[in-house]
Amino acid sequence: MKRLFTLLICMASIHLTASAQDEQITRPQTTAPVAGEAIAQGNWMIGASIANIGHNFKSETFTLDINPRAGYFISDNAVLGAQVQLGLSIYDGGEEFRYGLTPFARYYFPEGAAPTHRWFGEAVFGFAGSSEEDSEGDSVFSLVYGLGAGYAHFVASNVALEGTLNLIRSNANIDVSNDSSTGLSLSLGLQIYLPGSGRSF
């Protein structure tokens, strides 16, 4: 009987110790209910997206595209800004650098909104070009425009992770034999929302 009583006490103390440790574990924050405050008139948005990163083993080509951006909320849900397009392809025998400046307009839809996330639509229109090392097509520069649709998930009071599906048309001759190209791309990004003067989240 003594042994049974001692065993029960040991099991109870182990259970209480484990419960206390579980309560002390702090899980990382994965969501924040502040989407409406972050996309209000007068706020700023800065961030970047990675549009394309990869390595083609057959052609031995490495590709990376990064688009830093900044914008200002002209009204609740609506932001105007500009993004810089930077891209690099390295392949056997050379490399190609892509560049551009594309102003954008973005609108966060109130429909289907939740405190922690928003759907948005976006339009871009600007100029882009490419220069290929040791090529007659160096410094080609022309028009780029397109549309995008995306999802912003707020992980902190002023930080959102984004995924965007883009349809872009570019006349920047990366391959000199082609006049233009149109394509779909998926980009992942991180945006930081800064309050305007006199505001806080």
UniProtKB/TrEMBL annotation:
Residues making up the signal peptide according to the UniProt record: 1-20
Alphabetically ordered keywords of this record: Signal
Protein name: Outer membrane protein beta-barrel domain-containing protein
Organism from which the protein derives: Pontibacter populi
